[in-house]
Amino acid sequence: MEIKIQPMGATHTNCYIVTIDKKDIIIDPGMGADDWVLNNTTNPVAILNTHGHFDHVWSNKSLKEKFKIPLYCPKEDAFMLQKCPLGQPTPPSKPDYEVLGDESITIEGIQVRYRHFAGHTPGCSVIQIKDVWFSGDFLFEESIGRWDFPFSSGEAMLKSLEKAITIKEDYTLYPGHGLPTTLKAEQKIMPYWIEQVKQTI
Question: Where does 41-145 have alpha helices with state H?
């Protein structure tokens, strides 16, 4: 598995291209992602969103039209692709497949598992491919996603952290912003974030 990464837009949102068996999966194509994706793919087969915020989905529409490939998004966040809840003029897109919670899917023979960790958004999810988590805006290096946006939920974030801290396997984490880390490293500081979230709900 080969992973390419490029921060996009003013928010430096990581766009990923995952290549397995000469097939490219595009994850979270943010603002201005088109040229980079076009120059770094040879056989794109799908676009995957971790959640519905504008900086992760901005180039959904243009890349979907260019490549004629399916778009996958968590069902609970699909509405955000039509109208940005943060007031940004995001080009509207429509998922071909709305992922339901913790769902495993197969794309061109590639096994992909969505792991639902709501809080930052209702549908906020980690995309697991092999032993890698593309953690979107749920987990970052020594941090977590904000839970004070429209449609965010501190209660849901708390449940998601309590769910994540119990996972025994380790994974390499490629977050929506910033540098890679590991699940084990982030589990060490999750008790701190659990307390921080509890103080706000």
Answer: 54-57, 60-67
